[in-house]
From TrEMBL:
NCBIfam families: soxB. This is Sarcosine oxidase subunit beta. Belongs to the SoxB family. GO terms for molecular function: nucleotide binding; sarcosine oxidase activity. InterPro entries: FAD-dep_OxRdtase, FAD/NAD-bd_sf, Rhodanese-like_dom, SoxB. It catalyses: sarcosine + (6S)-5,6,7,8-tetrahydrofolate + O2 = (6R)-5,10-methylene-5,6,7,8-tetrahydrofolate + glycine + H2O2; sarcosine + O2 + H2O = formaldehyde + glycine + H2O2. It is an enzyme of class 1 (oxidoreductase). The keyword Oxidoreductase applies. Residues 39-83 form the Rhodanese domain. Keywords: Cytoplasm, FAD, Flavoprotein, FMN, Nucleotide-binding, Oxidoreductase. Its main location: cytoplasm.
Amino acid sequence: MSTKKNPYSAFSLLKNALSYHENWQRAWRNPTPKTDYDIIIVGGGGHGLATAYYLATVHGITNVAVLEKGYLGGGNTARNTTIIRSNYLWDEAAQLYELSLKLWEGLTQELNFNVMFSQRGVLNLGHNLQDMRDIERRVNANRLNGIDGEVLSPADIKHIAPLLNVSPDARYPVLGASWQPRGGTARHDAVAWGYARAADALGVDLIQQTEVTGLRRQKGAIVGVETTHGFIGANKVGCVTAGNSGVMAAMAGLKLPIESRPLQALVSEPLRPCLDTVVMSNAVHGYISQSDKGDLVIGAGVDGYNGYGQRGSFHVIEHTLQAICELFPAFSRVRMNRQWGGIVDTCPDACPIISKTSVDGLYFNCGWGTGGFKATPGSGFVFADTLAHGRPHPLAEPFAIDRFYSGALIDEHGAAGVAH
Ligand code: FAD
Ligand code: PYC
């Protein structure tokens, strides 16, 4: 038996609680920025932190800073409903999300940090004949790509989610669903913290409370960033600033084909375990799972207007809760505890941008819209490779900005999970 003290033992938890948490060991350093780095990542969300981690671990590039205007993982990473799946329609998207799902499957071991990845399966409901045709097409395409998927009947669905109303008299009758058993949920904070801790241990500087306010160029090429704490040099800058990508691009005189809109979610009071899978319905703009604490985690559709206010409109969540109560009559008396919003950057084809730009040394990873949490590991992996080599990773190539000029769009509106 090891005689090493376990800093996370029950006794130490109690001791730290009684000392007002003053004696916790820091999980990562709080470094003073250097004057220069090989690569600067702007944005300390899950994607930025994963990028830094893979730069260090896969490519041996550790002279890297992640600059975050707030606190690590405090953006959309903190605000999302954590649904993970890879059942996208087109080969390009399906392969990227499937890389991510495979990385999720080993992430807790890789980071030595429990990201609480729970493969409880994801149901995407169909409510009319066209939904069912789309579901069948998508499941067939997934299987051709080696991605798990089945088309389920209402009786199969009832077996998996007994509280779901599959009566043909329902206002939104459930005609069937796609089912991805390897899908599920993870703990959003843990993903950010796991990547942060591992990247820091490899020498990456994680610099919080430092906003990038400008991009400095010489002879057209990037030489560093202006921040609220002064200039920091780097010849490569990767912007991973979900919700603010348009603002970042404008600093370089670029315009991205992106709209920024509020997306809301809410959680209920905790209940006893009653739903051990994820249920999504794109048609009715609602999706639901139950957290390990017992809360129902419920998400809505995007708000109809562009903006940067992290809140959203009441009528949107009201509509979502009407739909959830119709699908799950047993939840009609459950009280909601909290509501919040995040700003999602959406592209015209509901797919991300992972790309070099026309400015030498400036790269963007953005536009994940309503569905980027599931992509966190895969996005970081391919973006790190793209930054390290100065050319797109093969899986990132179809997601370059120039698809909006060539017309090679990858329309994933049907699989996006949230209509927009
Ligand atoms: P973020 O976590 O937002 O990180 C970007 C960071 O950049 C922020 O921390 C921000 O402070 C920082 N930043 C911005 N500008 C600057 C600057 N100038 N200088 C320094 N730092 C800056 N996806 C799913 O796959 N499944 C879901 O179930 C799901 N549900 C969602 C529910 C809601 C309500 C919302 C809002 C989103 C949801 N998403 C979901 C989408 C998902 O949250 C995002 O796609 C994903 O978290 C984006 O991760 P990120 O690391 O790129 O962004
Ligand atoms: O992309 O699966 C998804 C999703 C679910 C809720 C929000 N986004």
